[in-house]
Write a sequence for this structure.
């Protein structure tokens, strides 16, 4: 009997370890030979821990499970039975490309990875020259999934064309945005896809060394990735002849200390080099002078883990999904005050309202949804009146927002939007690296200005708008440059909450 109990951090936080122990103990007591696999999460966090049992070749789910359910699950009489997992609406409605194996396989079984299509993309890439691989990635329309949405192929071509005997692949796994967990889920549930993607990138641009920069708050992801790298080395996927005879490529896992600004690529590179994590001025671009001053690809986890899919199925297949210039799929992370939180991979184009009301089921409190912050703590607050906005890079930009890492944090009608705007400025003030004045000083002044608005100062609101314009235009990186998005979107969409005492009286 095969039984899957997620080893995903979210599932473990909800009691998956205790459930696995209870099932193992019950199986021993009944004399049942049970193989318990600690898989990744399927992404239905409201059902975690979700246990799967193979019945007549079909994986049937149970959830949320508590240790006391072990007896009923093994006897097939559990009240928490969900039926065949693949038939659940949450799973049926998805377009799972990047996350096709997450929750399905044993994350550290290379044999299972290959049986589900793994390494097919790498083998195809190695039969092509680097320029052809880059052309395939460019034709797919893949853009950076970490937030900026920059075309991946252009970045790779820049590194490919840059002179230099030593080049690097750096994976930005410093997932620090509020309401985001896709990177963590993928590394914990399908680590070899990231390794394969980095190996394809290395072949494409002629790199021999890669780094995964992982935040210390992700101990499970660090453990799984470190073991996956060891397994890949043992199998020859990494090492001296990984990309062909005499063509080395290896990966090292580096742990960051959790500074939000190190999610910005140049701060990350400084930290990776053992320096203080502060923003570098650009130019030069990291693609030309990155890690140790060498040409460097810096891509997000999801971006790199999607490359094997593109190489396996072809650029046209991937580009066939999406909306306009937003090609392929987006991994929505639905969180906050929501009934059904989790990860949902779908083609770009779904509206924000569908994601919140249809997939998420509305607020967990049952109160009307007031706003959704899309794209992390620097993302704009989108009111219900904008729920018809399609999830696409250009579409969100036109609406004054940004997709970012596709985290959706839901707020109900009780949310204090002036307080949320203040939090954005406070967050920026705390997390600023201090390199540039608009961010370092502007965020502190922003907190003070919002406090003046709350106290009824009629001159403070125009001052806040001017300050945000300065931060947007003058900051060196997105931390200071994007902080105005949540602040001014809150002002624009919820003006009554920013009315001064004098205006309110009038």
């Amino acid at each position: 009997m095969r039984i899957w109990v997620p080893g995903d951090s979210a599932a473990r936080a909800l009691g998956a370890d205790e459930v696995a122990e209870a099932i193992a103990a019950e199986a021993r007591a009944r004399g049942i030979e049970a193989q318990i696999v600690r898989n990744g999460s399927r992404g239905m966090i409201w059902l975690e821990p979700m246990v799967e049992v193979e019945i007549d070749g079909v994986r049937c789910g149970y959830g949320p499970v508590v240790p006391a359910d072990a007896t009923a699950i093994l006897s097939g009489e559990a009240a928490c039975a969900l039926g065949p997992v693949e038939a659940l609406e949450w799973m049926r409605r998805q377009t799972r490309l990047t996350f096709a194996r997450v929750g399905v396989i044993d994350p550290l079984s290379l044999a299972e990875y290959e049986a589900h299509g793994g390494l097919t993309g790498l083998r195809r890439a190695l039969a092509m020259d680097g320029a052809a691989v880059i052309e395939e990635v460019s034709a797919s329309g893949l853009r950076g999934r970490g937030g900026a949405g920059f075309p991946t192929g252009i970045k790779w071509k820049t590194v490919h064309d840059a002179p230099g005997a030593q080049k690097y692949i750096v994976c930005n796994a410093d997932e620090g945005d509020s309401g985001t967990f896709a990177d963590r889920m993928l590394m914990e549930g399908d680590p070899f896809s990231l390794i394969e993607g980095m190996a394809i990138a290395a072949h494409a641009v002629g790199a021999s060394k890669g780094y995964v920069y992982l935040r210390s708050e992700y101990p499970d992801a660090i453990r799984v990735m470190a073991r996956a790298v060891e397994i890949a080395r043992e199998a020859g996927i990494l090492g001296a002849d990984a990309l062909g005879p005499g063509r080395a490529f290896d990966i090292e896992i580096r742990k960051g200390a959790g500074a939000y600004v190190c999610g910005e690529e140049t701060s990350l590179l400084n930290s990776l080099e053992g320096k203080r994590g502060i923003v570098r001025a650009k130019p030069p671009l990291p693609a030309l002078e990155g890690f140790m001053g060498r040409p460097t690809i810096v891509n997000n986890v999801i971006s790199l883990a999607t490359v094997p899919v593109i190489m396996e199925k072809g650029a046209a297949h991937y580009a066939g999904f999406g909306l306009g210039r937003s090609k392929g799929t987006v991994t929505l992370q639905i969180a906050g005050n929501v009934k059904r939180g989790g990860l949902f991979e779908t083609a770009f184009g779904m509206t924000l309202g569908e994601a919140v009301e249809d997939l998420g089921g509305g607020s967990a409190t049952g109160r009307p949804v007031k706003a959704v912050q899309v794209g992390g703590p620097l993302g704009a607050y989108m009111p219900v009146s904008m729920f018809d906005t399609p999830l696409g890079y250009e579409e969100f930009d036109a609406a004054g927002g940004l997709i970012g890492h596709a985290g959706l944090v839901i707020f109900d009608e009780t949310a204090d939007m002036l307080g949320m705007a203040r939090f954005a400025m406070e967050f920026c003030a705390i997390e600023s690296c201090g390199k540039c004045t608009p961010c370092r000083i502007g965020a502190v002044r922003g907190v003070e200005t919002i406090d003046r608005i709350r106290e009824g100062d009629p001159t403070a609101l125009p001052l806040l708008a001017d300050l945000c314009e300065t931060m947007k235009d003058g900051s060196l990186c997105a931390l200071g440059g994007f902080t105005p998005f949540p602040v001014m979107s809150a002002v624009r969409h919820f003006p009554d909450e920013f009315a001064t005492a004098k205006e309110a009286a009038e």
Remarks:
- The chain has 23 helices and 16 strands.
- The longest helix spans residues 219-234.
